[in-house]
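[stage:ingest] chain + small molecule (coenzyme A)
[stage:ingest] validated
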Amino acid sequence: MTTPPIDPDFCVTTIAGTGSYLPERILTNADLQHMVDTSDEWITTRTGIKERRIAAEGQSTSDMAAEAARRAMESANVTADDLDLIIVATVSPDMFFPATACLVQDKIGARNAIAFDISAACSGFLFAMQVARHFINTGNRRTVLVIGAEKLSSLVNWDDRNTCVLFGDGAGAAVLKRIDNGGDQPGRVVSTVMGTDGSLAHLLRVPGGGAACPITPDNADQRLNTIHMEGRETFKHAVTRMCHASEEALAKAGLKASDVTLLIPHQANHRIISAIGERLGVPAERTFVNLDRYGNTSAATIPIALDEARRSGRLKRGDIVLLVAFGGGFTWASSVIAW
Ligand SMILES: CC(C)(COP(=O)(O)OP(=O)(O)OC[C@H]1O[C@@H](n2cnc3c(N)ncnc32)[C@H](O)[C@@H]1OP(=O)(O)O)[C@@H](O)C(=O)NCCC(=O)NCCS
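[stage:predict] done
[stage:export] C-alpha cells:
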C-alpha cells in the first residue's frame, strides 16, 4: 500500500461523507429519437450515453443540491448546525442571485454557514473542493459542504441534436472536514491542480442571457440562452488537459498512474474517458463510469460518481483515487484522494 506524504502547505482535509441525488424521470436515447434526428446507435457509439435524468416540473437546482447535501451530511454524521461553509458549483443556478448556495443553506437549515457559488462549469466541483480546502487550511472554517448541482435540461436547446443528447440533471455533495491532529484519515485530499484558458471560452458556452447579451424579444428565437459547443475542438482539449492535470496531481502527491486504484473522470464521453485511461495507463476496470445512466451533469458528475463508488464499496482504506475534470472556460482540475 502506498501512503502519499502529507502536503506541508496544507493541514489535513478529508472527505468525511458523500451524497447524491438524481431526479426520477429517465430520458432514454429511444425517447430522443422522437425529438430530434438521431439514433440510439449514434449516441451510444459516439458518446456512451444510454439515458439521462431530467428534473421534475418545478424542481430546481437548489432542490436537488439540498437533497444531495442531506445525504452527504448523514453519511458524514454531521448536522446542518455543524456546517460553517457551503459552496455550490453550478452553471445552472436557480437565478442570477441570490447564489444557489444561499437557497440550499435555507433549505437544509444550516444557520451557521456562509454560502456562495462557484462557476467553473464541469470542473466546478474540484474548484470548489480546493477553495474549501484553503478555507479549512487557514483555520477559518472546519466543516464545509461542497456541492456540484445542475439542471442542464433548462439550458439545453432541445432542437439541437449536437448537444441535447449529451446532458442531464443531478447533484452530488461532499462534506469536507479539518483534521486537527494531522493524522492519516480516509478520504484525505492529498493534492490538487487547477487550470484555466479563457481564450477558448467561445468553444463551449451559453452566449446569451447574461449582461453581454440579454435575451430580448428580437433575439429570443436564436436560442442564445442555451448551450453552444464546438464538440470536436472541445473533445481534443478535454483529453489533453485532463491527462496533463492528472499527471501533475499525481506528481505533486509523489505517486504514479500505476498507484491509482480508482480513476473517477468527468463523465462527458466514453471516448474521452478511454483516451485518458489509455494515455495514463489506468485500465478500464480501475475507471469509474456511470455516464451511460446519467449523461453529462457538468459540475455534478464527479461528486455523483464519488458517492456511487463509495456506497457500492469500490473505495477501500488505502485506495488512491484520482479525480479529474474539464469544462467550459476552459477550466480543468485534478485531485488525488487517499482513501
Ligand atoms: C459532441 C460529440 C459527441 C460529437 O461527436 P463527434 O464524433 O465529434 O461528431 P461531430 O460533431 O464531428 O459530428 C459528426 C456528424 O454527426 C452528426 N451528429 C451530431 N449529433 C448527432 C446526433 N445526436 N445524432 C446523429 N448525428 C449527429 C453531425 O451533424 C455530423 O454530421 P455531418 O458529418 O453530416 O456533418 C463529441 O465531439 C464530444 O463528445 N465532444 C466533447 C464534448 C464534451 O466533452 N463536452 C463537455 C466538456 S465538459
